[in-house]
């Protein structure tokens, strides 16, 4: 396990406990983060995958915190939700701006942030801690598919987080983000750089999707190229919606 990923309380925020599932992979990094927020009872943010050991750890921690008020989901992907049946705690549907209070007064407010998934939410504590799900990760960049609510929506979601100026980000994967402003700027600039690369290649007459991927995503490891190809489609979809996609684009 990465030394920064040992389960524990958030820096400067004792009411936030992180438990990381043992499901590492190219898309999950070191594993999916489950957060318990507040106490007597606490809120469970993203229960994690269907893994008995993780469920047991989460259940034990919930018991120590005086029970669970319910489950809040950043989004419905299985690595964040698979534990729900075995955990046996009801999912509480979130609406934009809705507030959820734990027994000790710790509260979370939902913010709709589509892009990675159309049903994606972030949650903000009253002291501006952001639970970012897969909108922003502790390492690397996140996966933005064409059906995730659109890349334009994803960029709007990043700017919503930027405007809130969180003091700490608790991501769905990876370590605590203790310099949120730098990370959010990095995420916005990363997407803008990919878009500039696509536009420049298209302006030079490149019309093959394979050539566009090889040129603009040349830094992506081979095992992540299929995911990068899907992300590229989200970028092309955005350019098309804005009237910047050539009609003769090929396969």
> How many β-strands, per DSSP?
10
Give the fraction of residues assigned to helices: 25-40%
The strand line-up of the biggest sheet is 1-2-3-4-5
Q: Indicate the mean pLDDT.
A: 94
The end-to-end distance, rounded to whole angstroms, is: 41 Å
Question: How many strands, which pairing sense, and closed or not: the largest β-sheet?
Answer: 5 strands, mixed
SSE ordering = EEEEHEHHEEEEHEHHH
Shape: elongated
The class by helix and strand makeup works out as alpha+beta
Please state roughly what percent of the residues sit in beta strands, choosing from under 5%, 5-15%, 15-25%, 25-35%, 35-45% or over 45%. Answer: 15-25%
CA radius of gyration? 19 Å
List unreliable stretches of 5+ residues.
1-6
Helix count equals 7
Quick structural overview:
It contains 7 helices and 10 strands. It has 251 residues and is an alpha+beta fold. The longest helix has 24 residues, at 180-203.
Structural summary, described in words:
By secondary structure, this protein is of the alpha+beta class. It is 33% helix and 19% strand. The chain has 7 helices and 10 strands. It has helices at 52-64, 78-81, 84-87, 151-164, 180-203, 209-216, 225-241, and strands at residues 8-10, 13-20, 33-37, 42-45, 68-72, 99-101, 107-112, 121-125, 129-133, 168-171. A 5-stranded mixed sheet has the order 1-2-3-4-5, covered by helices on one side. Strands 6-7-8-9-10 form a 5-stranded mixed sheet, with no helix packed on it. Helix 1 links the parallel strand 4 and strand 5 (68-72). Helix 4 runs antiparallel to helix 5. The longest helix is centred in the last third of the chain and has 24 residues, at 180-203. It is elongated, with a radius of gyration of 19 Å. Residues 1-6 have low confidence and may be disordered.
């Amino acid at each position: 396990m990465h030394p920064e990923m040992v389960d524990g309380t958030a820096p400067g925020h004792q009411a936030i406990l992180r438990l990381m599932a043992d499901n590492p992979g190219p898309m999950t990094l070191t594993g999916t983060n489950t957060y318990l927020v507040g106490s007597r009872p606490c809120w469970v943010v993203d229960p994690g995958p269907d893994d008995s050991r993780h469920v047991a750890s989460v259940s034990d921690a919930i018991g120590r915190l005086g029970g669970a008020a319910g489950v809040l989901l950043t989004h419905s992907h299985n690595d964040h939700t698979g534990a729900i049946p075995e955990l046996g705690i009801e999912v509480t549907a979130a609406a934009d701006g809705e507030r959820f209070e734990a027994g000790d007064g710790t509260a979370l407010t939902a913010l709709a942030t589509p892009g990675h998934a159309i049903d994606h939410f972030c949650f903000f504590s009253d002291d501006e801690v952001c639970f970012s799900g897969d909108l922003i990760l502790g390492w690397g960049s996140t996966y933005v598919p064409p059906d995730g609510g659109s890349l334009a929506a994803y960029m709007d979601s990043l700017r919503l987080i930027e405007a809130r100026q969180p003091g700490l980000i608790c991501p769905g994967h990876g370590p605590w983000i203790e310099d949120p402003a730098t990370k959010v700027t990095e995420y916005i600039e990363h997407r803008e750089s990919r878009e500039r690369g696509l536009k420049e290649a298209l302006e030079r007459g490149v019309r093959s999707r394979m050539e566009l991927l090889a040129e603009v995503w040349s830094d992506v490891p081979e095992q992540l190229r299929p995911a990068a190809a899907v992300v590229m489609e989200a970028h092309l979809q955005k350019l098309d919606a804005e009237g910047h996609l050539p009609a003769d684009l090929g396969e």
